[in-house]
Model the fold of this input.
Amino acid sequence: MTKENIATYFQELQSDIINDLEKADGTGVFITDNWERAEGGGGKTCVLQNGRIIEKGGVNFSAVHGPLAPEVSKMMHVAPGDFFATGVSIVIHPHNPFVPIIHMNVRYFEMSSGEYWFGGGIDLTPHYIQDDQAQSFHTHIKNVCDKHSPDFYTQFKEWADRYFFIPHRNETRGIGGIFFDRLNDSTVAKSKEEIHGFVMDVGHSFAPIYTQFMRDNYNKPFIEAHKRWQLLRRGRYVEFNLVYDKGTRFGLETGGRIESILMSLPKLASWEYDVQVEKGSAEAKTLSLLKKGIDWL
Amino acid sequence: MTKENIATYFQELQSDIINDLEKADGTGVFITDNWERAEGGGGKTCVLQNGRIIEKGGVNFSAVHGPLAPEVSKMMHVAPGDFFATGVSIVIHPHNPFVPIIHMNVRYFEMSSGEYWFGGGIDLTPHYIQDDQAQSFHTHIKNVCDKHSPDFYTQFKEWADRYFFIPHRNETRGIGGIFFDRLNDSTVAKSKEEIHGFVMDVGHSFAPIYTQFMRDNYNKPFIEAHKRWQLLRRGRYVEFNLVYDKGTRFGLETGGRIESILMSLPKLASWEYDVQVEKGSAEAKTLSLLKKGIDWL
Done:
């Protein structure tokens, strides 16, 4: 399992997901930007805008390498040397407020010293939380985890609750999912091949899960009030990504390709002053469920 | 010149500005939220939404005090003790893309040790940079500065260029203005009263400058393409405020009143992937002028 193999698997995953999303969307087409990094490596950024179901979605692949800047190696707690990093990152913002926002990321990191790890996660941000959708999402994710370890779902679901959290709002970003980082043969009792198998299963779970949510919800009728709420929830998504998301902040600080990093931001987002929701409304229900530690199963 | 006096002057300034903005807007009315801080002090947040000219604008006053958290005193490079901080903060987002966004802040900080300073700034972010407007803005600001010191404009204009800058975009936020911090009798050759006089002059320059820009531009015809560009420029404003603005980040990290801190964000903002502007267009001209070191006079 060389780093080149891993990158190739990720690139195939990107291609598979793009095909599945285009098929499910029906009219939207991803545009592709291949880019190179001056210091080594590059990537392929694929963005779909103004589709039938997807308003804006990005599916990015990158495989970059080169010397690790001293401040970065310090920040990452690794010894200085050359790094290699590859991954696939996805964020999808749909038109219809009843289709949830989704994010998925799988990644692999290796130092010239031989130190390596896998990381990733998948989390769902419904503008309106629906119990059956939340249950279905977590059941799917749990099944993927359970195939690989009885501990993964519980452990990585808690990690997601902690990670996808907006402290200044005291809200989770959505209904969570799983998040994991620094998985290798010394942090989990698995071989590199086994961990890779888990990560690829997470990656391949994305399209079936999300295209189902697209099909189930894209045609639901909505009114202006639902759209307004969607744009406000997207405002929170922007807050999380610009203020807390480690990948985004790392990219901004290390001079990554800005259009690829910020493809996660929605076409339109809104902020209004001190919005109050009606007691007993669907908006109030959603807010009441943006908490850590909920058992969605 | 006690801290209580200074806070009272600031509160009057807030009230004056609100009156002037409501008069210029014509239909918009500020709603007022008085709030208290558990650890000491409080503030008055005033927000105008959906006016005739102003889409969303906030004029905040606060005067807070209490023990300074150790991590904050370290971050601010002051010895531990009790702090007192008061200020007025303004951000205005207009409807019409030809009315610029504006920001103004004046503030005073004092430690129980007696250490004190004034800070503040005013900067203009036109969605479309107009030469005469830029010149008028900087001329006004320079006149205010020149009344107090021949060095202030040059020095504080450079400071604004450095501060109101978005590194990941390699763009200034707008056409700058002035920014200054930690002014006291040991950092500038002025008495506390003289510095206070300068800061109040900056504060009182806000309404005449901005209401003129409102009157001159609110009625200009615009098309969908101008609105689209305005929302994209607002996206950059959001990026600056959430990623770099020290006041915002300080507020988020220290648990300030979130609705007051984030009143600076626009009602609507937009992100599209890799937007290209037409050569020779007004958009291209604006982008070409988002640079440090331009002499606008």
